[in-house]
């Protein structure tokens, strides 16, 4: 009797030149290592290159206020908390706005406008991991506020503090307001490190202002909405095309992930794959078996008490928070712990 040996079919994929063109060598190394160990392509990298257009389009289609969608979480919460974030709280004459993860800067337009009218703005600084979103932000800010002093720099807030040399005017009468809007804190792999990096970037007069969704990720009703639906869809398409996985060989799965206590969007493989990363001296094969999933999008909701505990562990102290009218989201304002 003859036995047929079954050698499993393994597809080989090679990321495209377009994929490599938007990342530095260090970023490719981080992508490869995170994929190998944590089975994740961090969402932060999906805002670069074509990803910038994907975010801007998503924002302009689904988030920007229009006649039929009047309410916008960030704009409304910045408005509602204006008294805390206009320099009065710190008794400062002027403020620098340091918008970390600025995106297209649309959420801060009305806030800057209001501050500008009372002559409170010293400088607007946009920071982002994505050079292409910094270009979108800069174009918008220059168009809306041609006379405001502005600058932009590329940083990864998960890996580094805001460099002191860009925080010029360290001056008693000028405070820095660090913004981290768009529920971006929910998307990071290492939120604690991000809070610590903010804390280490701040001086006694400075404030950190961020938004997040309130509640428990584990209670998710299974219906994908907003970013989980439309942004994750586009990111999935961009990644599959750029790392060379055939459409029919994978599917997008959204679910609650206990290990990260987050809602995740995963790319589930239907075939065995070897992804060959070969770029600037990096030569690495990552094996992914049929049935395995890799995370490409994640979102962590916070219960308020857990969030306060997390900021305190990072050396930050709550100044004030408020929720939106549906109590689905909050804006939290913090200062450094040893301030009083
Ligand atoms: C969800 S969008 C929010 C954009 C904008 N703040 C808003 O509210 O519309 C996240 C933004 O943060 C940037 N970003 C994500 N991770 C980052 C990181 N680790 N360091 C710096 N920027 C990051 C993205 O490129 C993107 O512009």
From TrEMBL:
<protein>
    <submittedName>
        <fullName>L-histidine N(Alpha)-methyltransferase</fullName>
    </submittedName>
</protein>
<dbReference type="InterPro" id="IPR029063">
    <property type="entry name" value="SAM-dependent_MTases_sf"/>
</dbReference>
<feature type="domain" description="Histidine-specific methyltransferase SAM-dependent">
    <location>
        <begin position="30"/>
        <end position="329"/>
    </location>
</feature>
<dbReference type="InterPro" id="IPR051128">
    <property type="entry name" value="EgtD_Methyltrsf_superfamily"/>
</dbReference>
<keyword id="KW-0489">Methyltransferase</keyword>
<keyword id="KW-0808">Transferase</keyword>
<dbReference type="InterPro" id="IPR017804">
    <property type="entry name" value="MeTrfase_EgtD-like"/>
</dbReference>
<dbReference type="InterPro" id="IPR019257">
    <property type="entry name" value="MeTrfase_dom"/>
</dbReference>
<dbReference type="Pfam" id="PF10017">
    <property type="entry name" value="Methyltransf_33"/>
</dbReference>
């Amino acid at each position: 009797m003859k036995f047929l040996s079954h050698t499993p079919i393994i597809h080989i994929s090679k990321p495209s030149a377009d994929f490599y063109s938007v990342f530095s060598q260090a970023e490719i190394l981080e992508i490869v290592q995170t994929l190998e160990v944590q089975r994740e392509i961090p969402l932060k990298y999906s805002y670069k290159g074509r990803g910038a257009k994907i975010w801007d389009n998503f924002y302009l289609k689904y988030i920007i206020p229009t006649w039929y969608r009047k309410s916008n979480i960030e704009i409304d919460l910045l408005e509602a908390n204006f008294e805390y974030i206009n320099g009065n709280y710190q008794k400062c004459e002027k403020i620098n706005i340091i918008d970390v993860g600025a995106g297209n800067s649309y959420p801060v337009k009305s806030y800057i406008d209001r501050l500008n009218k009372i002559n409170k703005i010293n400088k607007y600084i946009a920071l982002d991991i994505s050079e292409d979103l910094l270009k979108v932000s800069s174009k918008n800010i220059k168009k809306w506020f041609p006379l405001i002093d502005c600058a932009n720099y590329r940083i990864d807030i998960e890996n580094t503090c805001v460099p002191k040399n860009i925080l010029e005017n360290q001056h008693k009468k000028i405070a820095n307001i660090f913004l981290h809007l768009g529920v971006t804190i929910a998307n990071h792999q290492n939120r604690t490190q991000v809070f610590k990096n903010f804390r280490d970037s701040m001086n006694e007069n400075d404030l950190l202002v961020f938004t997040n969704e309130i509640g428990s990720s584990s209670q998710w009703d299974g219906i994908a909405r907003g970013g989980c639906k439309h942004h994750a869809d586009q990111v999935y398409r961009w990644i599959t095309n750029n790392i060379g996985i055939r459409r029919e060989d994978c599917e997008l799965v959204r679910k609650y992930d206990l290990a990260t206590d987050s809602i995740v969007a995963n790319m589930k493989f239907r075939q065995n794959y070897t992804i060959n990363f070969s770029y600037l001296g990096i030569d690495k094969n990552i094996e992914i078996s049929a049935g395995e999933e890799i995370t490409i999008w994640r979102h962590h909701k916070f219960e308020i008490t857990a969030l306060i505990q997390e900021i305190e562990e990072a050396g930050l102290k709550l100044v004030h928070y408020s929720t939106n009218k549906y109590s689905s989201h909050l804006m939290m304002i913090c200062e450094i712990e040893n301030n009083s």
